[in-house]
Amino acid sequence: MRTPGNDFELAVGFCHNEGLLDGHPVVEVKYCANGSAAASAFNIVTVSTAGQAPPPVPRLAATTSSCGFCGTDDINELAARLAPVVGEAMDWQVLASAPELLRPRQDLFEATGAVHAAGVIEPDGSVSLIREDIGRHNAVDKIVGRSLLDGAVPLTGRGVVVSGRASFELVHKAWAAGFRALVAVSAPTALAVATAERAGLQLAGFARDGSLTVYVEG
């Protein structure tokens, strides 16, 4: 389930964060429409690497939502695929101000009150890219997809700010994209904290009114 709009970014970001691109460039993104005017014709997107990446393993399992040590195997799997994040740590005061810059630009949330947002935090504290979606994970996939299409991945030295809580999946996506920090306006899960520690990712929650709670120094 996703909020329509920026569908190509969503598909590319998801493929990158799940390791499906295998480091190969995206050469084409298109809807799998067959000339039909039906809305369903635009609910499937093909991301092509011109056959350079290996065929993806079918994803039939549910996403991981565990919040404790039951996710240890998931962390080990990510650690085997992803290198620890690199770069100098971002300033916590810079990160603390990010939600205040995100909120005024959440146009869809302003109209509906029912969607989440994610934004890229630059080293100078500005938020350079924002996407909204019914799902927090989708919003992060969208900003990663846009960044990858612009040649800006890995997002070394930058942070990501998200509305809502910080889940294991969000830490996974931040790690895969090369972000230095993840800031959430609500709490992280225990598994998110454990994953951020393994990644060397700065992690903060309850970022509101210019303050935050640091869970992982990074």
Secondary structure layout plus pairing:
Layout: H1 7-17, E1 28-31, E2 45-48, H2 72-81, H3 92-96, H4 98-102, H5 107-112, E3 116-121, E4 127-133, H6 136-149, E5 159-162, H7 168-177, E6 181-184, H8 190-199, E7 202-208, E8 211-216
Parallel strand pairs: 5-6, 6-7
Antiparallel strand pairs: 1-2, 3-4, 3-5, 7-8
Describe this structure as you would to a colleague.
The protein is an alpha/beta fold. It has eight helices and eight strands, in the order αββααααββαβαβαββ. The strands form two sheets. It has a six-stranded mixed β-sheet with strand order 4-3-5-6-7-8. Strands 1-2 form a two-stranded antiparallel sheet. Helix 1 packs across helix 6 (136-149), helix 6 runs parallel beside helix 7 and helix 7 runs parallel beside helix 8 (190-199). The model is unreliable at 61-69 (pLDDT under 50).
What are the defining features of this structure?
218 residues, alpha/beta, Cytidine Deaminase, domain 2, six-stranded mixed sheet, two-stranded antiparallel ribbon, globular
